[in-house]
C-alpha cells in the first residue's frame, strides 16, 4: 500500500466557501467535506479544529472543542485542502496549516493501530516469532484472529506463515521495528493476535482491523477528488 504523489488542484470554485458561510456547525449525524462539498456520516470523516493560536490540528477522536472542519479520510484530500486554502475558507479566519499535516494524521493513525497491538500483548493475546506463530497456527484451538507481518519482512517467510492461515486477516502496514516496539522487543517480523483470555484479544483484534483499514484507506487515492485541469 503506497501513499500518493503530488496533487494538482483544479481552478474550480471551492465547496468550502459554502461550508464557511454556515454560522454554526451542523447538528445532524452528517457533515460536509470542505473539499468536495459531499455530505456524509461524520464517523467516516476526519475532523480538524483550529487551536487558540490559529493552528489547524487533527482531531481523530472527534472530541476537541471548537467548530469541526471535516475532510474525507484520504491523504490527497488533506493535500488538496492545504493547497486550496480550504481550512481558512471553512473557518472564515486566518489559520496556520502545518506543512506536514498529512504526515501528522498518518502518524496518529499508525499510533492508534500500534497501541492496540500493545494492548493485545498486555492482555496475553499476542504470540510473536516465526516458529511460535507457525506452531500456533497449526493448533486451531488457539483461535488466531489477526496475522501481523512486517512490511519489510522477507517474502518467503511471509508466504510460509500465510499458507498456514489463508483465511485469517493479515495486517502488513508496519515495519519490523514498529511491530517490535509495540510488542516490547527490538524487532518483530511475524506475530498473531489470538482470542486470548476471556476473549479480550478478539475484541481488540476487531478494533485493530477497523483502524488498520482506516489507515490503508487513508493512503489510497480518493475517488471523490476532482481531477486537475491541465495547464498550458
What is the structure about, briefly put?
The chain is 38% helix and 14% strand. The chain is α+β, with helices and mostly antiparallel strands and 232 residues long.
Structure description:
The protein has helices at 16-20, 75-83, 86-91, 101-122, 130-138, 155-164, 176-182, 200-219, and strands spanning 30-32, 39-41, 46-50, 56-58, 69-71, 126-128, 144-149, 170-171, 190-194. It is an alpha+beta fold. The chain has 2 domains: 16-99, 2-Layer Sandwich (Hypothetical Cytosolic Protein, Chain: A); 105-217, 60s Ribosomal Protein L30, Chain: A, CATH 3.30.1330. The strands form 3 sheets. A 4-stranded mixed sheet has the order 6-9-7-8, with helices on both faces. The protein has a 3-stranded antiparallel sheet with strand order 4-3-5. β1 (30-32) and β2 (39-41) form a beta hairpin. Mean pLDDT is 86; it is low at 1-24 and 228-232. It holds the Pfam family YlxR. This is Putative nucleic-acid-binding protein. Residues 115-197 form the Ribosomal protein eL8/eL30/eS12/Gadd45 domain. Residues 31-106 form the YlxR domain.
